[in-house]
Design goal:
The protein is an alpha/beta fold. Helix content is about 25%, strand content about 30%. The chain has one domain: 3-Layer(aba) Sandwich (Rossmann fold).
Length: about 190
Amino acid sequence: MRIIAGKKRGMKLLSPKTDVSRPIIDRVKESLFSVLYKYDLPEGKIVADLFCGVGSLGLEALSRGAKFVTFVEKDPKIIATLETNIEKAGFVDESKVTRSDAFKLGAPVNKQQYDLVFVDPPYADTTQIDDSSPLGMLLAMLINQLAPNGTVVVRTSKRTKLLDQYGQLQVIERRQWGTMVVTILQKASK
């Protein structure tokens, strides 16, 4: 696993010795960021990486010019590796690590709301997709944490198809790579 493009192109990311995380493979990450460029993301944007693991998506966003990334992860062993990756990449001043369950916290807003939020929970936590499910409630919470026209990228198993809309969040694109699906939602103007 490495950073694909930008200032830190080619930098290898450390991974903990655990089978808990499901790192996104490099070719899929490259394809995802190609799609995000259509929406003028992530350069200059405020980003959150929820269920971030070792920070692959957030660090890729920083390498490609994101202004700031908040990483949310609850596993302290994985956080230690995440913090090492952030330091190794030289992005300490452009990032913040929050140890929390993203289903309860969402994307913690500091000074600015988020332009882009990556939501990458364990697949087992994405089988229920209705408004009252943990994922549905997280998406509802994110509405207030997103900037106008903010974008949410949700990674799930190909067996999971998100609803077309969660409150003000509307699906604008779906992509499938192998056994995973990425659903891109955008906050609609009121």
